Structure formats: C-alpha cells, structure tokens
Batch of 4 targets.
Target 1
Amino acid sequence: MKIIFATNYSYPQVGGSENVIKEVSERFALNPENSVFVLSNNVKAEFCEKAVSYLPLKSYEAFVSFVNQSNIDILMVYSDCFIYWKDIILNPERLKCKIVLCPVGFNATEKNTKLYTLLSSNGSKIFFIPHSKNYKDYSIVEYLKLNNRVIPNGIDLKCFTDNSIDFKKKYSIEDKKVILNVSNFFPGKGQEFASELIPEEIKKDCVFVSISSKINLPFESSYLSKCIASFNNKKIKNMFLRSVGREIVLSAFKCSDIFLFTSQKEVSPLVVIECIAAKLPWVSMPVGNCSELPGGIIIPNQDKDFSGNYVFNQKVKKEFKDTVYSILTDDKRKKDITKNNLEFIEKRDWDKIQKEYENYFKEII
C-alpha cells in the first residue's frame, strides 16, 4: 500500500497532531510492502526516518503530480485546515487515489460556508475519520451521510513504563507540587489564564511547569511573554521549558502532581491520554471528547466566544481553583480519580489503533 499523510505540520515539529501522524505512519512503514510519505509545510528538505519519507509541500499542482505519478493508494489529509484542502474538496477527481480526511474538528469548514457547501456536494467522494463520536465532526459526517470510521487517538504505554528520569530531581524541585501544562503557544490554548487558576493558599508550595515547542509563528512570542508575566506578577514559581526531548516530556507527566489543561477548544487531545497513561490527574473544561475520558475532572462551562472557544469566566476560574486545591491536598482523591486509567489505556495502544487505520484503508481501496 502506498500512503501519503498530508498536513500543515509534522515531525520534527512536536505537537499533538504531529505525534498522531508520526505514530501511525511509522507503524505502517514497519511493513516493507508499504511505501509511506509525509508531506508538510514545516519540512524544508526531504529526509527519511524509520522508513517514512518526509517531503516539503510545494505548489498544489506539484502536489497533484506527485500523488498521481507515485500511484498512491491512500491520501490521508490531517485536518480541514490543511493548506490544500479547499483545492482537494473542490475537485477530488483530480487525485487518482482514495482520499481520507481526519476533520480534527472541522474548524475551517465551520468558519467557511463555501467549504461546507463543497463538503455537502463532494463529500461522498471522500472518506472520513473522526476521532470521537462525541464531537461535532462526527455529527457533521453523520448528518451528511458520509462514509466514516471513528478511530480514537492512542498511546505508547511502554514509553512511560521505560522512562526512569526523575523530573523533579533533574530540575531541583523535589519539595514542590508540580502543576504541569504541555501545549504549544497557539490562540485558544489558554495558557495566559493559567496563573488565575492556581489557589492562593498553595502557590508557595507549588511550581507551574510549561512545556512547549518553538514553532516560529508571529503570535507565539506574545502569548508566551504574556503567560510568563502573569506568573511573575502573581509571584508563582514557574518554569517554561522549550523544545525539550520527548524523554523529558514523559518524565514530566510521570513526576507531576496535576495537569492543568487550559485549552479552550479541542477535538481528541493527546496530552489528556498521556495524562491517563501516567496516572496524572487532569483538570479541563469540556473541550473535545474530554468528557468521555477517565482520570480527570471536567469543569462545567457553556460560555463560548464567537470562535467557539470556551471562555474563562469568574465561575469557571473559581471551580478550577477549588478542584486544583482539592486534588493537591488530598492524596486519596488523586488515587480515586485515576483508579480506572490502566483499563482504558490498554485499549488505546498505538499498535491497535494503527490496525484500525489499516483495516479501514484496505476496505476502501
């Protein structure tokens, strides 16, 4: 099988979507009968790793030529925000392969009536993979009666069990409760509100740790600076780690005391699944499919802005504070929250998830 994963951002950049593509593509590439390509915007020169060929995106005409001349079987587009998705949905017949879209929330389609019209008229020529039945992309493809298969995101539990790094010792914070946030600085990630979610009573005993990748986009530095300033102004000890190795990220999940998930809009957040694998209790608004995931606490909220992002109103901030306080001061509650994590995670192993992709691809070609 010849497969292309087309996306705006991929490995070596680090992020949730990037990791999904990396895990799935590498497992397809383990089969020597498969040829696997990743085409993305952030790749500047061709390279190969773990039998996956990474190529830079060029013009749409060059993209079409590559797909057709390479006799590709499956083109999997990750997100309708993909730079060439509008061109693809406008005339799917130009690409001589089966086209699969992971909508990842249908965020572009939701804002663009022309895209929705094209989806309605041409969507029957495309196949869809929502990550959850409890999110709007599944509702949309079901409403339009489009061919789809729900495939959740996964986790490699072995990466956690094999990791022996003592994160607190490495960064000399053994005497502190670690409040962790792992996310890049994008609009809607909500890190600028994080300092307002930490209770005054425990701030002297904790440290807020942010882990993110440098993504070199115009808005990144302003969000990062605003977040750092808010913690310094409130005199909350903080660490902002940038582009650290995967093994450090995993050790942070394992050694932290709570995960503060500030995102205001999501689909199927991989970081929450990583929390579950690490038995790290998480706190979040009802973004994406978080309500169906174990090991954490959902802060109820029905207040959204014009972009569909949940709003941090005063009631939500207070409930975050109360929940953070109760988890960090009650070890029994922490254990109770995470007691069903292993049963859930064993079903989400990436090897099993990749097999679901493979079975779906075989069905449609």
Note: The mean pLDDT is 96.
Target 2
Amino acid sequence: MHNFSGKTLREISYLLNNFRKMQIGIFLKKLIIFICLFCIACNNRHKEDNIDYKWFSFGLEGITVNKFISSHNFLFALTGPNSLWRLNLDNDNSEWGNLGFTITNSSSYSLNGVFDIIIDDYNSDNILITTRNFDTESSNHIVFRSFDNGNTWEPADSGLISISNGLVKKKRIYLLEQFQEFIIGSGGYDGFYKTTDFGRYWEKLDTTVAIDGWVLVKHPINENIVWYGGQDASWTTKLYFSENSGMDWEEIRPYPVLGGDTKVDFIALDKDNHNTVIVHTYSELVKSMDMGSTWDTLSLKVLLNLKQSESENEIYYASMLDTLYSSIDGGYTWDVIDSPNEENIKSLFFDSARNRLYLSSEEGVFYYGS
C-alpha cells in the first residue's frame, strides 16, 4: 500500500473537485441544449397544429370535372364534352389551359369527350388519352397521344381501327392502366388491348373478359394485382381480378353482397395489403380482406365518389350529392366534413404529393390545404 503525504492528498482532492465541476458543467451545458431543442420542437409542433387548412377556389366555374390526375407540376381535369384542361401547380398566377377535345353537338353527354388519361411514368411530357364519341364530330380517331405535355396531339389507335369493304370498324377502349413494359386498355365489349410503344400500335389480348368496364385499377405497390369492374350486356354487376398484370382474369363469384342490376363504379386498393379491396356499386359499399372470398358491408351506401389518401392508407374520402365524408378506419365508419359550398360534388381527387384534396362542383374546382 502506498503512503501519501498530506500535500499529495490535498492535490488529489483538488483535482477531483475540479473534475467534478467540469463534469457538472458539461452536464449542465447538455441539459441547456436539450431544453432549447425541446422548446424549438414544441414551438414547431405548435405551429403545425395551427396551420390554417381551408378550402381554396381553383377556377373552372360552371364546368363539371369527371376526373382529375396530376403529374409532377401539372393538374389535369377531364370535363367530358367541355375539353381537357391543364393547370401549372408551380405557378401561383397560372390559369387553366384548354387542351382541346371539345364536343359541341347535341350529343354532348357528360361522359363523352376525353374519358381516361395516362401520364407516362417515365416522362411526364408523354400523355395518352381515350375518348368517348369524340370521333362522331371532328375526328375519325378514338385514342390520342402527346409528347409535349398536351400542347399538340396525334392519333394513337393503330390496331383499333380497320376498314373492310369500305366500312370503318373501331375497337373502342376507354380505360387505361400503365405497367412497367406496356399499357393495357379496355372498357368496351371488345375486351383488352395492349401497347408497348405508348399507343403507336395496339394488339388484342387473348382474354374472355368483355364487359362494359367502368373502373380499372392496379395495385400501387404490386403491379401484378389488377382489379376490373363494370357490368355485362344484361346490366349485371361484374368484378374481376388479375395476378399477372391483366394478362389473365378471374371473375369474383358468386357475389356475397354484389349483384343485381347495377355496376361496379369505384375500386380502392390497400397499398400495404394486396388482399384488401373496397368496391362500390350503385347501392353498396363493401370491403374484402381476402381477395374477394368474403365481404363486409360498410356503413356508407350510395355514393358518387370514392378516393383514397395514398399517404395515409386507411383514410378514404367519399361524397354523396352535396355531402363530403371521410373515414380513418378503412371505410368502416364515416364522418361528415366541411365542403366549400352547398353544390353537389361531381368528383374528388387526393394529391398525395401535395397533401391536397381536390373537389369539383358547379361552382368550380376547390382544394383543401394550407
């Protein structure tokens, strides 16, 4: 054992005390920094909680929008016989631009004109559209494409139109869905067609599915899973799903709750679980969690629109007449939320990139955001 002198012990004690003071000082500095960061975080959270979310008017007054779609910078509005419209979302002073396809004759049914649209996943300047009864007025063509964001268009229906003995025969497609290597189109009783060159040529797919299709949806994560719904020639509900990107289809039957003289008009898929699907007909809103083997009837019945928040998978938005609903539990319960006016709601669209809910009514387009 070492023997220390009194002086040595005092020196050791002095060093230990200084070391303790240094440690306490460092601790206090860290504590002060932590408190400051915590206060900043609380202040930021408080600011977020007080963000003024409200409805903003977005133009197109008096024009019914059947469908919205957005690209990186633009919002497109399909307004049936009233043209295809485009708005630059990056420019606060931008106005809606008319991209054409107006129908002015007496058969200007609300679903005529531009019916569906695809913006190329690999180049947002490339756009492919289908039309309904547009060829009866100003064009012999039914599908068009653009390579400059809709400024100019060219026919894209080779393989769909043929001439025999002087008679023009058209194989109509209305619905579009894009996959990694091809695009499929359907909607009419002529079945499915596929293009690998963005509409330059379409080839017939060997499928037995030939219905009046109203909705074609691929899974947002697993593109092998595709759902297709509508009605057959006898007005009976038809619902199909594919596990190989639409090359083959299996009909969902018998219908536990679907069926009757109606049609499937909305389908929403769960991005985290490809077995889950929500389907709407004229009179039922149902949900299956086992790829259609069994179904639950949801509390909301007749509705006109059904949209899913892709950023928050369990949130759904729906509308019926002038009433807007939201569900935060996958569609099992619904709450009424404020809408911008008392006009009937024509269409809904949730833009997950900007966290905005778009709405169309007789008073124009609105979005809910900050």
Note: The longest strand covers residues 113-119.
Target 3
Amino acid sequence: MEFENRSPGQLIQSIIVVLLTLLVATQALSLYIIQPMAYDGTLTRTGRYSLTFEAWNTIGINENETVVGIGTSLTQYGISGNCIEEKIEINNTSVYNLGVPGSLPYIEMMQTTTAIANNPSLILLEVNPINLYPLVYASSEYLEMRIKLNSLFMNSGDYGDWVELLREQDMTHLDGVFSNRYGSESTYFNSAINEYLTNLLTDERASKHWYLSTPHPSSNEWEDYLKNPVWLPRYLDSLNQSEVEDYENATIVKELKRPRYNPTVEMNLNKLALEYMVQEFSEHKIPVLLVSYPIHPTAKSHLIDNQFEPHNNTLEILSSYEGVSSLNMIWTDEWAHSDFYDIEHLDTSGREKLCSVLALEINQILN
C-alpha cells in the first residue's frame, strides 16, 4: 500500500497537513456558522450573552473618548449611550452599554484583560446588592453557558489572571489557549449544523427576534445597538390597578427576601471578581465609576434595617483604589414609581433621569 511505503518524515508531514486542515475548517465553521447563530439567538436565549468580546473589538478601534458600562440587565436597561453622548460636554465621546441579562461579576471579570488592552477612557461598573451574592445561589447551567460562549469569541490575548479565580468545575467549560482549544465549538456544533442544514434545505431562515437577537458585528446596526440596546415596554403598564397593588405589596416583598437582595459581609467569588476588576483597572490608570442603580421606591420602603450594609461596605472598599469613585443612587429620592420597568430595572423616564446624572459624573471625571 502507498501508505506503508511512506517514510516517517512523509507521514509526519501528512499528519501536519491534516491537522492544519482541521484547524482551518474548525475556525471557518465557528466564524461563519456557529458565531452568527450565537448572535441571533438561535443557540441561546439571547444574543447579548455573546456580544462582549466583539464589542471590545469595536470599542478599541474607536478614536473617540470611550465610556463603557459593564454589568447585568440593570446596566442594560439603565444606560442610553446616545442620550449621554448628547448631554456630556466633552466632544467626540462614545458611550457603550455592555450590560448582559442575569450576569455576575464572576462572569464579567473574563473581559478584564481585553478591556484594558482597548484602553477605555472610563468604566461604569455596576455594583448593586444583586452583584454580591455567593455563587452557590447562581445557576450552574447559566455559568456553564456564559463561560462557553465567551470562550467561543476569545483569543489567546484575552486570558489573564482572572483565570485563577475560576472554580475547578468552571475551568472545564473554558477553552484553553492550547488544550481543549475548540471545546466551545464542539458544544454548539450539532445544533448549529442542524439549523444550518435545515435552512439550506428549506431555503428559508427563521426571522430574528426583535428583542432577543443581536445585530451581527459586521452589520450597520451593530455599533448603535452597543450604545442603545433594545428595551422591552414597561412591564408594570401591562398590569391593572389591582395587579399593580399585588406586585408592590406582595411580589416585591417576596423578592427582597431572596439571597440576591441580602448581601452578606463574608467574602465570596463575586466580590473577589469585582475587586479584581477594580484593582486591574486602577493599576492600568483606567478611571472607574462604581454605579449602584436605584430600586423601586416601594422596594426601598420595605428594606429592613442594615439590609444593604454589606453593599455599602463593598462600595467603600472598592472606592479606596486610585482612580475609582462611586455613585450610589439606591438612597436618593428623585426616583418615582413611573421610572421603573419593574422592581429593579429602569424604564424610559428613569433612563432619561439617569442619563442626566451620569452625564454630570462623566463630565467631572473626564474633564
């Protein structure tokens, strides 16, 4: 047989060619099939789970001053980049909103090295009580999904010391620089190929969901979406008066008893992740504004004494780093019932108020 007649050198050369071919094929599969389906919500519930690293690529090539919000859906529903850009006094400033639904500092810390490499002018880092609870209360399925999706878009230069904070069970979901390099692709391979072949055979593509999908980074809508994400219409407007009273007097009270609204004084991985991010940004001379978004007035009225004291202590610790300041809006009085989508997310009027508040803060920090 021809195979048997080959020299060891020829066999090694053949193996290298096969491996390189597989490498190129895997990269092409990820770039042209899997990643687009991550953005449009085909593979996961929402495309926002996948936008972080491509967003930083866009931010990095922007020659303007760049202000970037990092956090959960509180950030997503709180920051209107276009509004802030109009109100601040600094010309040529771009404001981006990278808030991700359900996220945790433990997950958001994965972008730290990438953020530093792209040198933003200011980071708006969300620090609310819901960011401080122990990981034991977090969904393991959510953590696995987010780590794998981040891995799908990460390059070797995106890894950093944050890897040392990952738990052993979570490290198995992270693609390595060399080992398990395409683990995330293997997770989504079957679903992506099945969807792709179905679309190919039927010559049709399911329409993108108006809220859950994310524009592709190559689209004209991408950068505007990073500044002004799509927001749902106000949830409380869908309720009648009786339902609103039940929501405020029963649902909100129940929500306030959950661990996410009862931070503790003990250190945990979410707190460590926040401190890691703040310390890294501070050491690299990137200013940070810690933003504590307001909560519904009824929720504030139902808080027990010192319920948020661990949150206040966390802000004090993080604010001690050089170049870090804090804006805690939980205790300010300008927020009305109509400013909120629900217990914790701002609606249109609330975003407009926050826009003015943040514009003033940004002016003071960057001027």
Note: Residues 161 and 324 are 21 Å apart (CA to CA).
Target 4
Amino acid sequence: MKKIFFIILIFLCILAAAYLIYLNEIILPEKIRTAVVDGLRAATGKNVTLASAKLDIFRGLVLKDLAAGDENSNILTSKGVSCKFLILPLLKRQIVITSLKFDSPEIFVERFSDNSINIVEAFFKKSLLLMKRKYSITSLRIILSRGSINFKDDTLDPPFTKEIKNVAFDARISFPDKIKFDAEFDISSQIPASLKSSGEYKMREKELSLDIKARDLDLKEFGDYFKRVNIEIPYGKIDASAALYFKDGFFYADIDMTSLAIIFSKNKINANLNCGLKAKVKYSFNNKELIYSGDLDMKNLALFNLDYAGKIEDIRGKVTFSEARLSSRNITCTVLGVPVRATVDLPDIGNPIMKIDVTASLD
C-alpha cells in the first residue's frame, strides 16, 4: 500500500513539475511579454517590441531582443535584459529592482535645446502600468555590458554628435542618498580614445564627484564646448587624469595631463609642443567666470613663421600660469642656432606687456 502511495506521489510531483515547466515556457512567457510591452508603451509613449520574456529562478525576469523608440529610430535596443526584483513590494504596487542588466545595448541619447534628455523624459518620468494597475519603479542597480551609445547635443549649432563604443557601466544606490558608478568606454575617432571613470552623486546635496582617466583623447573634437568659455583647443592627443567636482553652480577640476605633438596656430605663428600640465580650475555656471592656475612643463616646443628669427626650436622650461599672470624663471631654447636662456614674466594678461631677460651663449 505504501509503495503504491509513494508511486502515486512521485507521479503527481512529475505532473506538477511538467505543468510548471509548461506554464513557464508556454503560458506565462506570452502573458509576461504582452504585459511588459503594453506597460512600457503606456509609460514611455514609444513603440516597444520584445521577442520573448520569461521568469528565471536565478536571473529573475529575462527579456530577449528588446527595442523601444519612434517610427524612424530606436532609443534603446538590447539583445538581452535580466531584471532581478523583490517579491513583497509587488503587493504594494511597487517594483523594487535589485539588479537591471542590459546585454549589448545600443542607446541613442539626445540632449535637447532646453537641456532635457530624451532617455530621461521617456523612461524615468511615469509610473509603469501592468495588468491595468500602476506600479512605481525603483532600481537599485543598473548594469550595461558591451554597449554602445550614439550621442547628439542640440544645444550646439550645428549639433554635436559622437559615438561611444565598448561601454561597461555599473551604477548602484548606496543608502541613504548616494549613487555610485563605474564606467569604461571608447570614444570613436581615427585613433579611438579610451576612458575610465568612477564617481558618486549625493542626491540631497546635488553634489557630483568624478574621477576620470583618459588615453589618446583628442580635445579638439570637443572644441565647441570650450569655445563657450573662450578657450581655443589645439590639435593633438593627450593622456590625462582628472578629479572633477560639481556643486551649487560651481565646477572644480584638478587635472594632470601629458601630451605629444600638440599643434596650434595663432595669427601667423605655428607651434608644435610636447608637455606636461598640472592645473586647478574653478568655473561658475551662474557668473560664467573661469579661474585657473597651474604649471606647464614644456618639452621640445617649436615656433614657426616668426618675422625675424624664422623659428625658435627646442624650447624647454616650466611655466607657471593663471587667468591673470604667466611667468617662468628658466626657459632654454635655440634661436638662429644659438643656445638661449631666458626668464619671462607677464604680470597682467589683460595688459600684455611682457618682461623678458635673455642670455645667449655665443661660444
């Protein structure tokens, strides 16, 4: 009798397991897919397509081939999305996502002329409607793996565009009020620039701190942004590290940079420069006031198309500078084949009268 009961119990367990597999593989996926598509369409106002959706005991809600956008272009596509979430908050119509991971996403980010951003306007302003019920959404962590971003900035004329590849991004909430993030990506150009960054945003204080390391970065490609603060960017690539800080309408930067073959022109004078730079910068967005200071270590600077000397070669020395003053106690160079040593002092950049003491060796 016990043996028969045991066999019946095993048979019922097999039937239950088969039904759960059928439910999760056939019935639930279509219901979940329809609910997710309808919910995202209502929340974003965008066209949403999704190849499949199912629940996984380890990865949570798993979506395949997600796409959201307008008729002519997509804002977001991703080969795979995994969403881990808490169960109990669902009873209060809250979706608390502990991890939201996008695999190979392609994202189009557009900054409009009013400084609003399309991705924020579309995905972070409305509640999600599922099964005719509204749910608030809180995501504690967002991960992008092997992603790409196409960026367009309409605040500039003509609009600035840039493609960012090989994006690895990890942002997470650190209670009670901090968002921490790490990122790595490449900026497309003839020789792609690679960047790594990590930072923290304090929501209550509206305070952002950010550390960046860049390699083979061509600042000239971002020259339109520097023109806003009357800075002309030369041609050439740099390696740099910077600690950036934003708070209360102010931007602060502590920069350490090295460069090879920086080329720039002013009037008829052309220059070629290798250098190391350390600088501190403060900028007020309200007053549009720029304050800076630092040291420039020049190596192999050459000036061409000079009226009398023709060119000055092998200029070396350390220059101390600020927005108000420029000076150097020891600059060496070669003029008309003669070694020259000089001290330079420009006490007021607004009144460009330079004091120069020159010593030449004619031996």
Note: Residues 2-44 form the longest helix (43 residues).
